[in-house]
């Protein structure tokens, strides 16, 4: 991952618990999860918007001329 071992992860978890408290930890996790989900949805929406759309008007014009 980032070269983090078990000891470093435990130390980070202890710091997070001290900063936010055990009662607020689920709220922080839920907020983080919502943020990640929103980020992924917006990224996938941008990918869909960047795809070239097929222009059907030229096909309709050709069919109308026949």
Q: What value does the average pLDDT take?
A: 81
Largest sheet: none
> Helix and strand string, N-terminal first?
HHH
Total strand count, please?
0
Low-confidence stretches: none
Task: Quickly give the structural class.
Answer: mainly alpha
Attribute tags:
single chain, 66 residues, mainly alpha, 3 helices
What this model shows, in words?
This protein is mostly helical and 66 residues long. The protein has a domain at 7-44. Helices cover 76% and strands 0% of the residues. It has three helices and no strands. It has helices at residues 6-20, 25-50, 57-65.
Task: Detail the topology: elements first, then pairings.
Blueprint: H1 6-20, H2 25-50, H3 57-65
What can be said about this structure in brief?
The chain is mainly α.
